[in-house]
Amino acid sequence: MTARAVFFGTPAFAVPCLEALVEICEVVGVVCQPDRPAGRGLELTAPPVKQRAEALAIPVIQPEKVRNGELAAWVREQQADVALVVAYGRILPKEVLDAPRLGCINVHASLLPKYRGAAPITWAVVDGEPETGITLMQMDEGMDTGPILETLSTPIGEDETAGELSARLSALGALAVRKGIPKVLAGSIVAREQDHARATHAPMLKKEDGRLDFDAPARRVHDRIRGMSPWPGAFTRARGKLLKIHATRVVDPVAQGAEPGTIVVADKSRVVVACRERALELLRVQLEGKKEISGPELYAGRSVVEGERLGG
């Protein structure tokens, strides 16, 4: 007899996991966050998981509240063996976690106990981690504190952005579902407690997290730039105007002793800014209200010259 499952998820990251779960179980319902305004016209738009669920002819609910008892009652009505939760975006109360026969299983985009919280992919990149992965976890009432069921790891490229890594981890999450959920259903998986003393946190992102401080090693600044891509985006100021920085390369310093943030090279071939250790070549940038351009195009537009300082 095919197991019955409920799926909780909202963004595109969660879609491959829904597709993987459909291969294993009868998915009797999907829970998403409500439709939100999106795009330039701010039209009410269904989240990606809802769109995929409807294409698969799976019923979808989008509760505004999760703690009034109605969601828990709905999950119990589905007589689900298991619920899979992937980037749903809400903290589920105990009555929901306990509603499926085998509880709720979470796909988390880090190697727990590292990077518990809302933005594990971004902060792993910002911190220059050499690897990350996916953890399949039995959910409890804590923030990503439950027992670990399955882990899959992957290296992080030196120039890989959070957006690029997210796409890879989305596919890896689906693989973890295919590997781990059948074992959960069969009762053949042994959960292991997390080492809570080793826990680190990945708080929700704010726009201000993208502000760059060049008084840091160039590698650290480079890691923040790629970690903040695509959102909230890394930024500084040039002549008082907002300058988004999309891509950089760590290079050896052109001159010793330059103040961090100083443009030390600006010509037709490249633009280089000094950091506390080494320097950064600006590869792709975007001035406020303008399109994305290369570093040399920034120089050609007379937006920076050697000796100027970014920031402030």
What would you say this structure looks like, in words?
- By secondary structure, this protein is an alpha/beta fold.
- The protein folds into two domains: 4-198, Rossmann fold; 207-300, Methionyl-tRNA Fmet Formyltransferase, Chain A, domain 2 (Roll), CATH 3.10.25.
- Helices cover 25% and strands 26% of the residues.
- The chain contains eight helices and 15 strands.
- The strands form three sheets. The chain has a seven-stranded mixed β-sheet. Strands 10, 11, 12, 13, 14 and 15 form a six-stranded antiparallel β-sheet that branches.
- Strand 6, helix 4 (94-97) and strand 7 (104-108) form a beta-alpha-beta unit.
- Helix 1 (15-24) runs parallel beside helix 6 (162-186) and helix 5 (120-126) runs antiparallel to helix 7 (218-227).
- It is elongated and about 70 Å long.
Tags for this model:
312 residues, Rossmann fold, 2 domains, 25% helix, 26% strand, alpha/beta, 7-stranded mixed sheet, 6-stranded antiparallel sheet, Methionyl-tRNA Fmet Formyltransferase, Chain A, domain 2
Question: What's a concise summary of this model?
Answer:
This protein is an alpha/beta fold.
The CATH superfamily of the largest domain bears the name: Formyl transferase, N-terminal domain
Order of helices and strands: EHEEEHEHEHEHEEHHEEEEEEH
What characteristic shape results from the CA principal axes?
A: elongated
Mean pLDDT: 97
- Helical fraction: 25-40%
Rg over alpha carbons: 23 Å
CATH architecture of the largest domain: 3-Layer(aba) Sandwich
Structural class: alpha/beta
Q: In percent terms, what proportion of residues is strand? A: 25-35%
CATH-assigned fold name of the largest domain:
Rossmann fold
Number of domains: 2
Residue windows where pLDDT falls under 50 for at least 5 positions: none
CATH class of the largest domain: Alpha Beta
